[in-house]
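Homework help board

Subject: predicted structure for assignment chain

Our instructor gave us this sequence and asked us to write out the predicted structure in token form, then describe one feature. I got the tokens but I'm not sure how to describe them. Can anyone check?
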Amino acid sequence: MTAREHLRIFRRGAEYSLRVNRKYTVLLMANAVLSSVTGYVPIYFSARVIDALIAGAPVRTVLFYAALTVGIVFAANLLCTYLACEKEAARKGVWRNEEWSYSEKAMGMAYESMEDPEVDRLRYRIRRESQIGQNLFLFYQHIERLTCQAARIAASLALTASFFTLPSVPLGLKLAIGAGVAAAMLLQTLATQKINGLDRDFNASSVEINILFEHFDDYIAHYGAGKDVRLYGMGGFLRDFLLSADREYWERDLKVSCRKALWTLPAAVLNIGLKFGVYAVLLYAAMRGGVTAGSIAKYVTCVMLLAEALVRMTETLQEALDNNHYLKRYFSYFDIPNRMYQGSLTVEKRDDNEYEVEFRNVSFRYPGTKVYALKDVSLKFQVGERLAIVGMNGSGKTTFIKLLCRLYDPTEGEILLNGVNIQKYDYDEYMSIFSVVFQDFSLFALKLGEVVAAGREFEEARVRECLEKANFGQRLAALPKGVHTYLYKSYDPEGVEISGGEGQKIALARALYKDAPFILLDEPTAALDPVSEYEVYSNFNRISGEKTAVYISHRLASCRFCDRIAVFHRGRIIQQGSHEELLADRAGKYCELWNAQAQYYITS
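My token output:
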């Protein structure tokens, strides 16, 4: 990393820390300065007390110095305690803001980035590095430590400046002490470089196993896994698996720790030698009568504190430079751009609901792949039409829905709404015209009414109406608090657990509540039996009214009421028509799929 890049990251880290919580950064620095300088007050006044006693000064003078020392230190410690309390309160705000930044980034990120495994891996990595105190959190520590060491250096120099002008200490000895300090700084720099390099390599090689540990912990901690663990007797297997991976991790960590300890040894030995040398020089000066007893105590302490502060300053700067590698990776996640063109046109609000959607020669490849999920798809449908999408797994059905909703943009071709490329419409406004129930939908552990309304405020009567329409009425009547009942027990111990089929009905009610002109159902009834599924589809066909409905289903019988059926195969549309028309084509794929499913419902 170049010097310019280091400076850029330092500057961005400083700006980011102030933006996350300016108060915390200011308190951090103020407390560091005050607590560092306070320690020099007794050093200075102790020297004055010793010299006063030896000189036979009045007791009043000695007591004055002692009282001044105690008073200043007491006041400084009192202020430090107050600043520390304020700093701790502000620190919690930093944690909250930093945690929220991940959620904020996720909500503003393009969906293709959300599905990108490399982005997911990067997010795991930087969060893990945050947990062990790297990136932003280590940057805060460096601010505190650099401020602290700078204050100590300034205070030490103020109290030891006269030492370097003492005529009783030869210039050669002064230069020798200076050379010793420089050597200690150099050794510490080399040691810190090597140690940081070892840590970087170890952390980089541990990314996979750390992700494994995190997923493993999530799995074991989830109550849903308890059934599998018990029924299949997996406890011993899981324990051995975790112990084996854990042992491998800590054996590597121990080897790295031993190598780090060896690199710290030379600097530690030199520091001990430097202390001895300072004592020797001051004793030599004292024997020549050039230093008072009080000054000896002051100089010995302050020269050593100066040397230590310089070494620690060097070490901290080196660590800060190393942490820039982690900060760079940290910022790279939040810098992931949203390349989805946002558009600016307003989606036309038509009183007649005459919307027309057209896929014109659309092809699509998922990022990082060379295989087309859709190839040269052309299709046109209008509001009020019932369109069913059928086909085998992997034929491109869900991809079709994702493109229609602009979760992705086509690789080739274009999608039009009323003759206008959908990329030109305001992104959020365009998405507002779709109500979608995906097969892998998510329901939050909130109040049922909030889940259906997708918001904090909701109309109770309308929520109940939508749940009734989605065939959830009987279950709703049994809930203890009706629409105010919490789903699951994540936030409320009195929350209710729901089955997969019940969850799909709630997701369906949520789509109804949104009341968008387009309703898209991607296998929304996969957890229901065929009879229940047929009831849901038949009922939904009635209540969707004049809205456009696009259905994806593996069960072809559920699509019989649709105006048109498009058969997908290997990313292409190979057949279109009504159920009767497609079934009449005995050689077609639809007829093949229909007969394959029908045999399971024929009794012998």
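Reply (TA_rk): Your tokens look well-formed. For the description, you could write something like this. The chain has three domains: 3-334, 353-433+520-604, 443-515. That's the kind of observation they're looking for.
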